[in-house]
Fold these 3 entries.
Entry 1:
Amino acid sequence: MSWSEVFVKDLDFHFAIEIIVRTLIMFALILIILRLTGKKGVRQLSIFEVAIIIGFGSAAGDPMFTKDIAIVPSVIVLVTILVLYRLVTWIATKSERFESVLEGEPMYIIEEGRFVLIDKAELTFAKDEFLSEMRQQSIEHLGQVRIAVLETTGNVSFYYYSDEEVKPGMPVLPKPYNLKSKTIGVEGDYACTYCGDVKYINSQTHKCERCGREEWVKAIVTKRLS
């Protein structure tokens, strides 16, 4: 194996300069095109907009370092994608049904301090990922949350109970959550680790009446830190 073939191959000085120029031009065009879409940040992107960004990257990437690909055809592709984006978003503003098909709909994840039972075919997020999102919002247990909605952008909107309304809930911090077990040692309030339903349990084993699971963790009732 020749290291020069791996790192340099047939690259010459003049084409290296051309790559720099091509990259600067295409990068500037990408910034301009993205600015024209009107988006302010990555966290606002929907699935459709992510597809648009991928299209931008594909159209702009090759001309940066490929001799046989000119810049103008790539500019045509970028402008076409921008026009398509503008057209589709305009149609979406006129038709809620079209927007729903294109972007999807918000999904309730938590209601009244418990996970909403969602069909596995509709499940679009990992539980560990969602618990991490809750911890980042200074949420210690489900009993602090009245409603949580997964938005079409991937963000989660939380609506909280007041301190007076907080009730026992499933802990989301790693240490107390990892104490989950199918065997109840001491009677008290326990939360189902699958659906978050809280019950007072005084038996060694207990099946959740809501989801049918048998794994429990000690519920906690701490107030939320603001």
Note: Residues 15 and 96 are 50 Å apart (CA to CA).
Entry 2:
Amino acid sequence: MPMTPMAGREGGPAPIRPLLAGYALGSLEPFMHALIESHLILSPKNRDFVRAMEEAAGAEIDGMSVPSMPHAARDEVLGAIYAGSWYGRPRPEKIDPDVPEPLMRLIGRELDDIPWRFYGPGLREHCLHEDEGVTAQLFKVKPGKALPQHTHNGLEVTLVLRGSYGDGVGAYRRGDVAIADESVDHRPVADPREGCVCFAVTEGPVRLTGPVGRLIELVLRR
């Protein structure tokens, strides 16, 4: 009997279940695949559930006549899943212990060596991918600082790599996954002592809310 999947330290079980199933079946897009795989490496919470899903899927496949996949097609699939991997470029000399290898293959450097971009007071951002409605970003937030209040026009999935944060919906530490959609309007705030570094994959644009968001909307309308 598989364990109930968990979204985070205080998150409910339902939001992450489709992502875990998609990971087990190999149907997630590459950046979401890397996020979920990294979560499973950092946290034991959902490993039993995914293992049970994989075993069930394997049993179904064993009873089917499945054509063998040509090497070229197999390599194309692996290349899509591990986009940004070591292929074609040297492996970094140092591997950041805070970053699981699936993410390290995408980032290609330690967190402290990333060319962070200003995102607001106490906030830094590094975009890894932005195309076809999917954005993959790293966020570095100083202790006690907050991201702008926002909601979503799609799914936002966030993995904590360092430190912790809370958003009024849940509290998330290293290895935890937070999931939000258009029903969630939140303002993530980093831990006042240690701050946080997170990896987020967003499907669809983020919509700012609260005083800052309303001010920006007024400016853009002029």
Note: The domain at 115-221 is CATH 2.60.120.10 (Jelly Rolls).
Entry 3:
Amino acid sequence: MLGRQEALDERKAQRESPTEPTAEWVLGPEAGLDRSALHRGHLGELQVLVRYWNGGWMAHAARCPHALGPLDETSPAEDGTIACPWHGYRFDLATGQEQAKRCGALATYPCTITSNGNLVVALPQP
């Protein structure tokens, strides 16, 4: 329950003092990043997880949109989905959609490698 309360407190603070999200997060040289590690960071107040999976980098929200479960406690399945450890909601990492359409989509963010070799996560363009 402490994890849920921390997530609720974070959400409340974001609503009370909204800040403009940072447009991008530069993780550094892609060649030097540990592909077996989960990388945690922020796009402004948005908590983001970056992982290497199935031959490429992917970025998504750190918390489940259903009940704010911690998605850093689980790994992608072979079918390209990730399940929330709290209630089992399963999200497609390519689209963010929850398989049974019981809640909103998981936020996903594009990852690119710049011309100088840095891995960058960015907010989607409107």
Note: The beta strands are 24-29, 39-43, 46-53, 56-61, 81-83, 90-92, 108-109, 111-113, 118-122.
